[in-house]
Amino acid sequence: MKNNLLFLTFLFFSCSLDYEGALLDEEISGKTPNTVLINFSETVVKKGSTAYLVKAERAETFDKKNLTVFTGLYFAEYGNDNLVATEGGAKKAYFYSDTEDIEFDESFRIDSLDEGYYIEGSSVFWDGKAKTLSSGGKNNKEEIEIGKNDGSFIRGTGFRSSASDKSFSFESGAQGIFVSDDVDDKDDEADSGGKGQKDE
After folding, report:
1. Is the pLDDT higher at 31 or at 146?
2. What is d(CA 189, CA 200) in angstroms, rounded to the nearest whole number?
3. Residue 71 and residue 94: Cα distance in Å, rounded?
4. Burial of 73: CB neighbours in 10 Å, binned 0-12, 13-18, 19+
5. Cα distance between residue 169 and residue 171, in whole Å
6. Tell me: domain 35-192, CATH 2.40.50.140, correct?
7. What is the percent of the chain where pLDDT is above 90?
8. Over 60: is that where the pLDDT of 184 sits?
């Protein structure tokens, strides 16, 4: 296939064959995956127990970019009790093996089952070196929502969280609902007809 393309290039652009051929090689290597896997599945085992599970409808690898593109991604991390501790999915995901950066795109959701919270949105970026998670999209303005199983949630734009100190923040537009477990608050809700919600 490559030789045929170069031959056609020679016929039409004989005076600049080497230059055009180099551009063609670069374009093919950048846009055409080296490997395409359908119904991809990988299980990582550590010390005899399943540590991670990754599945995807499609996985494409681009060797020169150290990039794997997943479509229809599902992943799970297992705890010491061999139960799923965290799971999630994304319509599209980009994994860079040299930096361990990951970008979830188009839509994603991550559930921390052992801690009882979730995070979801349209796009988010994990910095493998800094160990930070931030909303993606143009100008970092994608809306992200974090919630708990009790119905509490907060959403906003300009999201950023740090794995080192387990903190998170929003640059703007943060608002949500807080469901209190306090008995006095529940009595107040009954008296006022409220739903225990708090706009932030």
Report:
1. 146
2. 18
3. 9
4. buried
5. 7
6. no
7. 46
8. no
Q: Which residues contact 155 (CB under 8 A, 6 or more apart)?
A: 143, 144, 145, 146, 173, 174, 175, 176
Spell out the residues 6+ positions from residue 91 whose beta carbon is closer than 8 angstroms to its own. 71, 72, 73, 105, 106, 107, 108
Domain spans of the chain, in order of start: 1-32, 35-192
Q: Give the CA dihedral 123, 145, 91, 99, nearest 10 degrees.
A: 50
Q: How far apart are CA 76 and CA 89, in angstroms?
A: 9
> For the whole model, what pTM was predicted?
0.72
Residue 35 identity (one-letter amino acid): T
Q: How far apart are alpha carbons 57 and 90 in whole angstroms?
A: 11
Cβ partners under 8 Å of residue 157, min gap 6 = 135, 140, 141, 142, 143, 144, 170, 171, 172, 173
pLDDT of 194: 38
